[in-house]
What does this fold into?
Amino acid sequence: MKDFQYQALPMRVRFGAGSLASLNDEVVSLGLKRVLVLATPFQADMAERVSQQLGELSAGVHAEAEMHVPIESAHKAREVAAAAQADGYVAVGGGSTTGLGKAIALEFGQPIIAVPTTYAGSEMTPVWGLTADGEKKTGRDSKVLPTSVIYDPELTVSLPVKMSVTSGFNAIAHAVEALYAPDGSPIISLMAEEGTRALLEAMPKIVEDPSNIEARSDALYGAWLCGATLGATTMSLHHKLCHTLGGTFNLPHAETHTVVLPYALAYNAQHAPQAIAALQRATGADNPAAHFRKLSLSLGAPASLAELGLKESDIDKIVEIATRNPYANPREVTPEGIRELVTAALHGDDV
Ligand code: NAD
It folds into this structure.
């Protein structure tokens, strides 16, 4: 018998190849007059082009977004935004750029228009993150949820193949945990299953031909759905582990998600039958965890946490952090269980 709550998040999505052309209309329809364009240094050229497209609606470009939003970069961006008298932000890029927009919005409460160019999904969530003194803090605040999102697959064609694969698995990890989240719902499960299916179908085609715009469109569609499931639910063991591996050991975000996902799912599988049934439909495989592992390796993803720089001597600390505070998870989180899981992921054992 069904028993759930579902809170829809208020935002507008414009989706389609070439939809970046609708950015000016979006800015005007939100009543904004001077938006600051945000990007990483690597995507500064793209941000300049967006700023030119905006013309008088642009308050300039700030292309200094960094992974995990160091507090200093948040302070600087807020100063730049205030000096430019910006009344909103256009975040063109991946989770790092959206994260910088959120850090400004957290202080000033002005709208963000996100233009995602990876599959990370931050644009669909009210979750912000800030890193100070080597520790990443996160929180939820409706102020940081982007008001509008423009998904233009043409902007993802330049995403390198390796990152397309790992970012795709990052998105799938959101869907996997949403399927067994304590605050899941039938609509979120539909989105999770369909998002996973779309990404799994698209990724091999992208590896074969990174400029395949149909496949890019399908992958971004999947990323949207998976991101929406992240925004709507409480995440469990997998995200907790990846947060620790990224925040404390500085492991790369999308790659870490890709390596850990099969092990975290295998850990929970027996305790999450409905999630497994949905993933069996999405993957067409009896053992979705093994399928994720096999597919990710065949598409060139990293094989182990050791490959990403983790050491055997780091495991004690991971176990300690991952079991310090209780959190929702289908299977009890025990020190022995986490040690076994992380050791297997460290070595890249079979799932
Ligand atoms: P990223 O934003 O750090 O991007 C990685 C690199 O790829 C950057 O140099 C970027 O400029 C470049 N890049 C992005 N799109 C490109 C494209 N289309 N073509 C060429 N280069 C491109 O990576 P990410 O994985 O998208 O984001 C990771 C960050 O986002 C982490 O800090 C993570 O914690 C955060 N995140 C937050 C949430 C949330 O809900 N708050 C959700 C997911 C991720």
